[in-house]
Amino acid sequence: MYARPVPQPRPVAGGGPPPATGAWQDGDPVGRRQWAVLPRPLPLEAGGELPGVRIAYETWGRRAPDGSNTVLVLHALTADSHVSGAAGPGHPTAGWWDGLVGPGRAVDTDRWFVVAPNVLGGCQGSTGPASRRPDGRRWGGAFPYLTVRDQVAAEVALADLLGIDRWALVLGGSMGGMRALEWAVGHPERVGALLLTSCPAASGAEQLGWAHAQLAAIRADPQWRGGDYHDAGPGGGPHAGLGVARRIAHLTYRTPDELAARFGRAAQRGEDPARGGRYAVGSYLDHHAAKLARRFDAGSYVVLTEAMNSHDVGRGRGGTAAALRRITMPTVVAGVDSDRLYPLDEQRRLAAGIPGADRLRVVESPYGHDAFLLELAQLEPLVAELAAG
């Protein structure tokens, strides 16, 4: 089962302390980003409104004259709008679904017009805690609480600005799946077909518990400063707390069997755990924590995690079953057999409650939750099935 080689971590690029925030900043290389500014403040589900909202997005392909070939792709927690393409100026990582989206791929950009926004509250060009308010000050700790529905409301406004009345396909995994589900329940007339992978109908107690531990780690970092750290200079951000949060999260993304097969109790090369050195698995987690500090923002991590906690499609809609009955468009629900963050039974219940879903599709993988990013050969036919319809 574990015969496939797993890429080993590479040294983190760049020397010296990381910047206070890894957020994209005005003046940084633009890359493939485009921007849309909402014409009016965004009303928020919890009350109040968010002024001056800017949404960064990327597009691929060419839109058909009748708009019938539009696809919305929604990213997970620490990803962004860069779904397809190489890393480069403005894009610290390669496209996170590059194997699915592009010329000749399952979402063929020679046929489809693909739009991928950076989520509201994120840190790669859209308005978030690292952004500046209309008066020029950083939002920082004053950035408001967001729900998944608020984030989808911003994406609806983006679609309106782009003149897109209806998406032929809406695709999302993990946090992106939560938003795709909200699109389908809240705006079913604007969704032609739907792919939901590795996401539940509502965040449950265990997921809320994992999130609580991560949020506590960030807020306990003295460098957090109530969320107002963005201008502290190199090394001045809450990197220790963000790193602990990332280590916790990464353990929920993978599986015990994979970690055992990959690392076991091996020591990190050149270190002796009996003398205070690290085990190899600890070095692996440290590596991912260090990488995230250079490309992400702790404030966005807090805002987005709290938004994921809010996820409940049945809230105010008569319960989960009533909400899911609104989804009558063709739907593929996929779950990973080894996912311990969102276990397979959650996707099974999701598929059973959606009239437009014929059955649950199971992705078999040793990689756990991260399989929705890694097992593209198993996702390709599911996407192609929707695209063909």
Q: What would your notes on this structure say?
A:
The protein is of the alpha/beta class and 389 residues long. Helices cover 32% and strands 13% of the residues. The chain has 11 helices and 12 strands. Helix 3 runs antiparallel to helix 4 (239-253). The protein is globular and about 65 Å long. The model is unreliable at 1-13 (pLDDT under 50).
Helix/strand order? EEEEEEEEHEHEHHHHHHEHEHH
Question: How many DSSP-defined strands?
Answer: 12
CATH top level class name of the domain at 34-204 and 312-388: Alpha Beta
Strand content: 5-15%
Largest sheet: 8 strands, mixed
CATH-defined superfamily of the domain at 34-204 and 312-388:
Alpha/Beta hydrolase fold, catalytic domain
Brief summary of the model shown:
The chain contains 11 helices and 12 strands. With 389 residues, the chain is of the alpha/beta class. The strands form 3 sheets. The protein has an 8-stranded mixed beta sheet with strand order 1-4-8-5-9-10-11-12, with helices on both faces.
Index terms:
about 400 residues; alpha/beta; Rossmann fold; 8-stranded mixed β-sheet; two-stranded antiparallel ribbon; 11 helices; 12 strands; globular
List the helices and strands and how they pair.
Layout: E1 34-37, E2 42-43, E3 49-50, E4 54-60, E5 70-74, E6 101-102, E7 107-108, E8 113-117, H1 148-162, E9 169-173, H2 175-186, E10 194-197, H3 205-220, H4 239-253, H5 256-262, H6 280-295, H7 298-310, H8 320-324, E11 331-336, H9 344-353, E12 357-363, H10 371-374, H11 376-388
Parallel strand pairs: 5-8, 5-9, 6-7, 9-10, 10-11, 11-12
Antiparallel strand pairs: 1-4, 2-3, 4-8
